[in-house]
Amino acid sequence: MQTLLLGLVAVVAIAGTATVLLIQARALRENDADSRRAHLVSECFLHRQESVVDPRRWPVPVPEIRRLAARRGYQEMPPPTAEVLAFRYQPTGDSGPIPPPAPAAEHQARRAELAGQLSTQDFAWVRPAEFGGTLDDVAGLAGRHGARILRVLGDRFDPVLLLGRRPIGSLREAVPLPAAGSRSSAGHHRARIVALVAGVVMVAALIALYVATRRAVVGWTLALAVLALMAAVVVPLVAGSPRRALTERMTRLVQEFDGRDVVTIVLRHVGVDRLVCLDVAAELGYVYSTYHNSLRTTTRWYEGWIVFVRHDRVREAGSGW
């Protein structure tokens, strides 16, 4: 029985390892495309009134360039030459398409929740899609509680809005200071990696002990340890991360930009679109550096990392970003 269980554990471990390798291969294939998209947005569709894009410079298909421009609130206009594309930013008064609404009962619950937030707090974060409405709908609801839209961030078709009862000069004014000893996004990821490595080392030690002693109790302990380690890897992939409120996620994102020269954002930990990260970083004095995938992202199967560098450090280094 014990031998059968150990054999089953070995099969599961081999299958799990093969799955992880396949997922990693997919992540590597997607990495270059994701990096090019993020770089294109940061260079051409971030706080510019007009933008001219030369498709020969950007290894991104022309339909994809147009799609990214639309998501950022840009409309195409006649280009200066036939070889390039030209876009003009449109003010946010035109709300644009909104994703299909959720059930009406959920809309009403979210409206009531937002009203409660605005009655007790100066600021709140919201997405129009949560109401099944438009920017104008959100502005009207906020106005009834003495607030207005202060920021429109991210994807124009599904933006993240900051509502406030008073004006702000910086996004930092809309979030509390981070708690003492709070861990950064990259810090959470490193802690998870350390825990997994410790688990692998423990399993390796148990294997060595079992080979040396052949004691049944060691064999059962080894089997349970392997199953526990596999569960620690597989369960988060299948179940995903707990979904926190948008205000909590945006607070965590803004707090990441705390003055460090380099800030690494693990998108799963902040739980927002990369376009929102680009907007927040730009306002807080950071520029896009790199984007890469490792295991597990918001699709649950691999993970997106986006790295920003302080703008003044980029200037000092004479970077071409």
**Rg (C-alpha, Å):** 24 Å
- Helix share, percent: 40-55%
Low-confidence stretches: 93-98, 295-302
Shape verdict = globular
DSSP helical segment count: 10
Q: What summary fits the major beta sheet?
A: 3 strands, antiparallel
Give the class from helix and strand content and strand pairing: alpha+beta
Q: Strand order, biggest sheet?
A: 1-3-2
Gap between N and C termini, in Å?
Answer: 61 Å
Strand content: 15-25%
Mean pLDDT: 78
> What is the number of strand segments?
9
**What is the string of SSEs from the N terminus onward?**
HEHEEHEHEEHHHEHHEEH
How would you describe this protein?
The protein has 321 residues and is α+β, with helices and mostly antiparallel strands. Helix content is 51%, strand content 16%. It contains ten helices and nine strands. The protein has helices at 2-44, 62-71, 104-120, 135-143, 185-213, 216-239, 246-256, 267-270, 274-283, 311-317; strands at 50-53, 74-77, 85-89, 123-126, 148-153, 160-164, 262-266, 286-295, 302-310. The strands form three sheets. It has a three-stranded antiparallel beta sheet, with helices on one face. The chain has a three-stranded antiparallel beta sheet with strand order 4-6-5. α1 (2-44) packs parallel to α6 and α5 (185-213) packs antiparallel against α6 (216-239). It is globular. Residues 93-98 and 295-302 have low confidence and may be disordered. The chain crosses the membrane at residues 6-28, 193-212, 218-240.
